Input
Amino acid sequence: MAFLGAFHGIGSLLVLALGLVILGRPKTRHARHPQLGRSYARLGVPILVVGFVVGLRHWPDLSPFQLVVPPTIAATLVGWWAATQSGRRWLGSAWIRVHISASAGSVVVWVTGLGFQIAGRAGVPIDSPMITTVLFAVPTLVASPMIAAAARRHTALRAGSRDALVGAR
Output
């Protein structure tokens, strides 16, 4: 079990770093965005599943981590799927908003998990309802406006509307 815990811990840091790199790089085929995104999903989902399994050693108590694993897996897979050809056909022009929201949202959850790990190891009582609320809320509140702006900006770019692009900044 210790090996799985170490695998999950190191893998989580790698997936988080990859997610942050993807968010910071240009979103073009030449910038390898599609390849990096596929790698993020292919690495992230198994790491999440391993973390969930490792957390089962505390059964029947579920940690906040285990509660967010299924939605994080779903967001990662929806973000990946929206960018595929079938996702684009099924979603139409909304694919880019779904892709940005789900993919960036999954990175926010990885950041939240890191916050819990750092706080817990620093001796902060993460079982306190107030601390838990703050640790969940801050990354979401900080990232949500940025994700919404990115979705508006990329939607405007694809629509070719310079007026919408200027208004999205």
User: Anything to note?
Assistant: Confidence is low (pLDDT under 50) at residues 162-169. The helical segments are 2-24, 33-55, 64-82, 85-91, 95-121, 129-159, 162-168. The radius of gyration is 17 Å. The chain is about 80% helix and 0% strand.
